[in-house]
Write a structure and sequence with these properties.
two-stranded antiparallel ribbon
């Protein structure tokens, strides 16, 4: 049907008006509505309107609009046209392409016409492509504009091979791919001829002063190279190399304008694997690629051209791209270079790139060395056998040079300034610079490890030289402090890499002369460090770290353990710290010097923890003397409470694999003092009520300036460390659950039941009741009554600036000016006196408490026999849950409830699990439903503002709600899992899941859990939707056990799953599978699903009857899902149809457009359910 001139005129006026800078929101909205109307209206009319809009007589904006309509109709609604109309459309669009090519239309319009023809060809299939190709090649000969458009069409078609799109049936796609492959012998020579011919014509036109014509010819070269890049990914290599495209790329590597695309094409070839290619052809193609790269690098690495490789040089970007391409090529195809001299030249060039002072360029070469030095097969990766130098892919001379070079380059990644304004100009900000340095340093350290495994003696000697040199520099008065720090840090990083690699590869071997030499050299390095004396806190920190890497040496020679421990004690005593007096606390406002020294001393303890975790057997004989030494040093003030806790962790880590009696003894050493304190009358009195807790730990008074100050420093510091010791006692004595070798990482490993002989069994009686009383008091602090007494430090109970910055996706305030940047006084330590310190303390004890309770509930057998704890369990966790912040509730779910719900033995569920789930599940349904109702009806702005506090609050709130939703839905999924088998219980007697148990024990509670998951199907969050779908599928399998749940599944769950399809962010396949499960179970037996389907506008009883017959006629779930999709496409619900079509919509963007990826997943919001406005749950409450 031909659109009337009046209609076209009105459409043009609407488009042009909306494009004006002064256009109103209403005018822009009308243009959007017009676009949607044309895309969804009668297809033939839409095509007629689109074809009239794209005429060259109209403005560019109008033509763009017309092309957008045509692309949508062709891409999405092609099947609505007849075969004859398909042919007519193809002819019309090709004529349009020819017409546009003969005008002075802009490149944007020409590219859109080319994209449209590519889309029509793709929809029509391979037959049209083969018929059209000769016409395209003839069209390309008419001029540069036409050749450019033809290259774009060919590129768009070739991308069908490289980009996965689920918008074509399998047979049609196979035919198209077959046709594309058959066209390769014609297309590739055309591309090479186009490059050569138009490049020559561009040069000639430029010499004649015809710059516009020269640019048109140059554009053809660019398009031909871009198309070659696409074909390089999949086209057979024989016709690709025969066409001369590799030679063309080799030539263009030396041209300023085209070398980037030429390099990208060669890089794409370097990605290719042999697969079905002829070996001789494949090797020849790779050899030609490598020779082209070597030739280009030889030009760049001349002495005259070196400067152009630096920042903002003429070859800055190209040098990085070429180096990256050579690294990709060398990682897989170094052996394809035709001669030994070529290989040596290639490696020399890559060493030159690695050594270049420009860090961005140097970093591009590192993946090559890592790839060539890493073992290629699984057998060689086993640490039981040291690497064999004769099997190295690199000559040992190159390995030796690389070892020395990496040691020098490590200096670049260390010692960078902490001043936010001090960074090289080629980084966006200081954080980018820091992140790059950390990555660069890590890659260099890995290269050192790999080269050290091949040349252990040389590497140990180099580490000794560098360490001695840096220690000499640290003792030389003329060396600046900054130079001392960077020298010693680089030496320690090199040492750590060398020793780690050598010890892992060689110290596990049987005794031999070479092993004795390696042991001697490694021990000499350790003795050098044991004899060093460093007082500077930064140097002391790195000194302690340097001792961490000798764990395997200590395992081989346990006689060295006392010397290492003695060195650690010496580091403590020779570097005293303020606040370490017996029972002392850190200063309220510590200085920078104090914090640096405290960090260094903490590193000393962590060094011993690392040894205890890596080689516990080496420390076991020394546990009793170590425990006595810890107590002695703490009593004398040589170590503080903080360091005492860390050293106790050393004992716990070393005893983790010991027998149960030794573990019990160690736990008694660690927790004996805590038990004495917690059983005291004063401690218990502080837990009598929330008011007593606040008075003891958070007493407020004014300082000299009249500002509020938080008291209770000593009790807070003590409680923090007591909880730390309890938490780590649980962690170190609870074995990790590991899956079998080769297990599916996506499948959760079945947990272990609680141990009846757990070392903490004897301590549960005094720990658990007190922990739950602390928990209850902590939760009560957020009640209005307690908050009213703490208004002067109200900010302590709000999210801190750093955590808020994380949720706003902003850089964290760093450095010594972090407090000024965040607008809040620095916390100092958890024993500080300001609001920030109080916030840190509250968070730390909350996390330790949830971790401790979670560990005890899943691993300590005596936990469920504690009568006093049972009475406090439900109230301690759930009282005042309505006042908990989202992040606090999420923390409790993650650290405690997820594991507890899954592990709790079935016989204890009524006493322990039911008192927690009874208040939790209804509260979570109410909290999440109310929050999501607001978020969906009034979505927050897409991104936070710089000064809009209210807007930022909305952004933070939304992200917190999303996280809490996902955590709670994971809890529901855990409820559907089977519990672990208890000792003596066979697989045949597997117990019910929590969900099954609730269906019989508390059906209303089970229905609440199901309602939450169904509500989540309406919420626009992809992760939550996936979890909700998984839980709903589990519910369907057990729904028959309860009539109310069964009916709820057939009505509300089915309706919610269909609504979920209206969200483009959800995975249609998973949601369709849920719908299929529901219908397969209930369609033939229950009226609910039938009524829900008939409620859809366009579904009649006749359509439904045919649908039921089609479903019953096939037993294939895949076919049933396809039938369901076809039914929903007829539903008449526009949002549902659009969502289903979007999942199969082609992604063909115009070449000149820049895709905006922001808000792609969360930009579209689901409207509130019109029936009740309560997220589809209106029937639950009736």
């Amino acid at each position: 049907m031909q659109a009337s001139p009046e209609v076209i005129s009105s459409v043009i006026q609407t488009i042009v008006t909306a494009q004006q800078p002064a256009a109103s929101q209403d005018q822009r909205r009308k243009a959007v509505e017009l676009s949607e109307q044309l895309k969804r209206g009668e297809a033939r009319s839409s095509v007629q309107v689109g074809l009239q809009l794209v005429q060259s007589s109209h403005q560019v904006e109008v033509q763009h609009f017309g092309y957008a309509v045509l692309q949508h109709v062709v891409g999405v609604r092609w099947d609505e046209f007849t075969a004859e109309e398909h042919t007519q459309l193809a002819t019309t669009v090709f004529s349009l392409l020819r017409q546009v090519g003969g005008t002075t239309s802009s490149f944007a319009v020409r590219s859109k016409a080319a994209v449209l023809l590519a889309l029509v060809t793709k929809r029509q299939g391979g037959q049209l492509l083969q018929a059209l190709l000769p016409e395209l090649l003839r069209l390309a000969s008419e001029g540069p504009t036409q050749a450019d458009m033809v290259c774009i069409v060919l590129r768009m078609m070739a991308e069908e091979v490289t980009q996965y799109r689920d918008d074509m049936e399998a047979d049609n796609k196979r035919h198209l791919l077959s046709a594309l492959t058959a066209c390769v012998p014609q297309v590739l020579p055309f591309l090479e001829t186009s490059m050569e011919g138009h490049f020559g014509q561009a040069l000639a036109a430029s010499q004649q002063g015809q710059h516009q014509l020269s640019q048109l010819h140059a554009a053809v070269v660019t398009s031909a190279l871009g198309t070659s890049l696409t074909y390089a990914e999949w086209a057979p290599l024989a016709p690709f190399t025969d066409s001369g495209l590799v030679r063309a790329c080799t030539y263009f590597l030396n041209t300023q304008d085209f070398r980037m695309l030429a390099c990208d094409t060669l890089k794409q070839l370097s990605h290719r694997r042999q697969d079905k290619e002829n070996l001789e052809t494949y090797n020849a193609a790779m050899a030609a690629t490598g020779e082209a790269l070597v030739q280009a690098a030889s030009t760049l690495l001349t002495q005259q051209a070196q400067e152009q490789l630096s920042f903002e040089g003429d070859s800055d970007e190209f040098g990085q791209r070429l180096c990256e391409t050579m690294a990709e090529f060398g990682s897989s195809h170094l052996h394809c270079l035709p001669s030994h001299d070529n290989k040596i030249l290639f490696l020399q060039q890559m060493l030159a790139f690695t050594q270049h002072p420009y860090m961005l360029l140097s970093s591009k070469a590192l993946p090559l060395w890592i790839a060539l030095l890493s073992p290629r097969d699984n057998a060689a990766k086993q640490e039981s056998q040291p690497p064999n130098p004769s099997h190295s892919l690199l000559p040992l001379e190159c390995v030796s040079a690389l070892l020395d070079l990496a040691g020098e380059q490590l200096r670049k990644g260390v010692g960078f300034s902490t001043d936010p304004s001090d960074f090289p100009p080629y980084f966006g900000d200081h954080q980018d610079y820091k992140d790059f340095c950390i990555s660069y340093r890590g890659d260099m350290a890995r290269i050192v490890r790999l080269t050290s495994g091949l040349l252990p003696d040389q590497a140990l000697a180099a580490a000794s030289r560098r360490l001695q040199h840096s220690l000499h520099q640290c003792s030389t008065s003329g060396t600046s402090v900054a130079e001392q720090h960077s020298q010693f840090e680089a030496a320690v990083l090199f040492l750590d890499s060398v020793v780690t690699a050598v010890c892992s590869a060689h110290l596990g071997q049987a005794a031999s002369p070479s092993l004795n030499s390696t042991l001697s050299s490694t021990e000499a390095l350790l003795q050098l460090l044991l004899g060093a004396r460093l007082a500077d806190p930064v140097l002391l920190n790195w000194h302690a770290r340097s001792l961490e890497c000798f764990s395997k040496l200590l395992a081989r020679k346990p006689v060295l353990v006392p010397a290492v421990m003695q060195k650690a004690f010496e580091m403590y005593t020779s570097n005293p710290l303020e606040g370490n007096a017996y029972g002392g606390i850190p200063p309220a406002k510590p200085t920078l010097e104090w914090k640096e020294l405290q960090t260094a001393r903490q590193r000393v303890g962590l060094m011993l923890v690392a040894h205890a975790k890596a080689q516990p057997q080496a420390l076991l004989p020394h546990l009793a003397p170590l425990a006595n030494k810890i107590q002695e040093m703490w009593a004398s003030g040589a170590i503080g409470t903080n360091e005492q806790s860390t050293l106790f962790d050393v004992i716990l880590a070393a005893a983790a694999g010991a027998d149960i009696q030794l573990q019990k003894q160690v736990v008694e050493w660690v927790l004996g003092g805590v038990r004495t304190e917690w059983q005291s009358a004063a401690f218990q009195a502080a837990l009598d009520s929330p008011a007593a807790f606040v008075s003891h730990y958070i007493s407020l008074h004014a300082d000299a300036a009249g500002q509020p100050e938080v008291g209770g420093q000593q009790p807070r510091w003590q409680l923090y460390h007591h909880l730390y010791l309890i938490e780590h006692s649980g962690k170190r004595t609870t074995p990790l659950v590991k899956g079998p070798t080769g297990a599916n990482p996506q499948k959760p490993v079945p947990p272990l039941p609680p141990r009846q002989d757990h070392p903490l069994n004897e301590h549960v009686g005094w720990m658990l009741p007190s922990l739950l009383r602390v928990c209850a008091c902590l939760h009560a602090i957020w009640t209005p009554q307690i908050q009213a007494t703490l208004q002067s430090v109200h900010s302590a109970f709000l999210m801190g600036p750093k955590e808020r910055a994380v949720y706003l996706r902003r850089p964290l305030p760093k450095g010594r000016h972090a407090a000024e940047q965040s607008g809040e006084e620095e916390a100092g330590t958890v024993a500080g006196t300001n609001a920030a310190a109080l916030r840190a303390w509250l968070r730390q004890i909350r996390e330790s408490m949830y971790q401790s309770l979670g560990l005890m509930s899943i691993s300590v057998g005596a936990f469920y026999a504690c009568g006093a704890g049972q009475g406090l369990w439900g109230p301690g966790l759930m009282d005042h849950v309505e006042y908990m912040d989202h992040q606090h509730l999420r923390m409790m779910l993650r650290h405690l409830m997820l594991s507890f719900t899954r592990i709790c033995p079935p016989r204890h569920r009524n006493a322990w699990l039911l008192p927690v789930l009874t208040p939790l599940l209804p509260h979570m349904l109410a909290r999440l439903s109310s929050k999501w109702a607001v978020m969906v009806s009034q979505p927050a702005l897409g991104r936070p503002s710089e000064d809009g506090t209210a807007t930022n609050d909305e952004v933070v709130e939304e992200r917190l709600v999303r996280e809490l939703t996902r955590e709670h839905l994971q809890l529901l999924i855990n409820m559907a899992d089977k519990p672990p088998l208890e000792p003596g219980q066979g697989a045949a007697s597997a117990c019910q899941s929590v969900l099954e148990w609730l269906l019989s024990e508390a059906p209303d509670l089970a229905l609440t859990a199901v309602a939450t998951a169904v509500a989540a199907l309406w919420w626009p969050d992809s992760d939550s939707g996936a979890k909700a779908t998984a839980f709903c599928r589990a519910v369907v399998t057990v729904a028959r056990r309860n009539e109310r749940v069964y009916n709820f599944v057939g009505r509300e769950m089915l309706r919610g799953s269909m609504a979920a399809l209206a969200h483009p962010i959800f995975t249609a396949a998973e949601t369709l599978q849920l719908i299929r499960d529901i219908l397969a179970q209930q369609l033939a037996t229950s009226p609910g699903p039938r009524q829900e389907l008939l409620a859809l506008p366009a579904i009649t009883p006749a359509i439904l009857q045919k649908f039921e017959a089609d479903v019953a006629a096939t037993g294939s779930e895949k076919e049933q899902r396809f039938i369901i999709r076809k039914l929903l496409m007829q539903s008449g619900v526009e949002d549902l149809q659009a969502a289903l079509q979007l999942n199969f919509k082609p992604i063909l963007a115009a070449v000149v457009s820049v895709n905006n990826y922001e808000q792609r997943t969360n930009g579209k919001q689901m409207p509130v359910d019109q029936q009740g406005g309560d997220m589809g749950l209106e029937r639950l409450t009736q």
